[in-house]
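Before surveying the methods themselves, it helps to consider a single example record, giving the amino acid sequence and backbone structure tokens:
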Amino acid sequence: MRRTSFARWPCSIARTMDLMGDQWTLLVLRESFYGTRRFDAFQGALGIARNTLTERLDRLTGAGLLTRVRYQERPTRYEYVLTDMGRDFFPVLAAIIRWGDRWLGDGPDTSPLVLRHRVCGHATSAVVRCAECGGDLTAGLVAVEPGPGMPDAERTRLTGT
């Protein structure tokens, strides 16, 4: 069964999900943030089939989130290192952690992971705020409007005009 590609859709969510749209891809990135770099370490941590892991690592390197760095000549072996683009995905994972702890956890104080801010030393969680005023961004406080890259048909559907 062929997968529908959203890579060219005029929607940042659709394009991101086209790249990240399965649990293995996000888990490979999670492991990268934990410091995992080598194929066997990814496989051992995730219990993922080799062919599936190869495909996810190829996808993430091809998209620019990871880069392959040779660490051994004979046989040739590579590590997978987060790029700037890959590191920039961390706030997304932090937001997923916060949401999962709140809505899918086993109750208060049962989070399987704690994010500790290295600057102040406090345990923390992701909070999405307005880049201009610092106010919370919630569904009730944000208006969704067409951007300059939205096609006319989609603009009409969204605005009703």
Remarks:
- The chain has a mean pLDDT of 93.
- The helical segments are 12-20, 23-34, 39-46, 50-63, 84-87, 90-104, 152-159.
- The first strand starts at residue 66 and ends at 72.
- The first helix runs from residue 12 to 20.
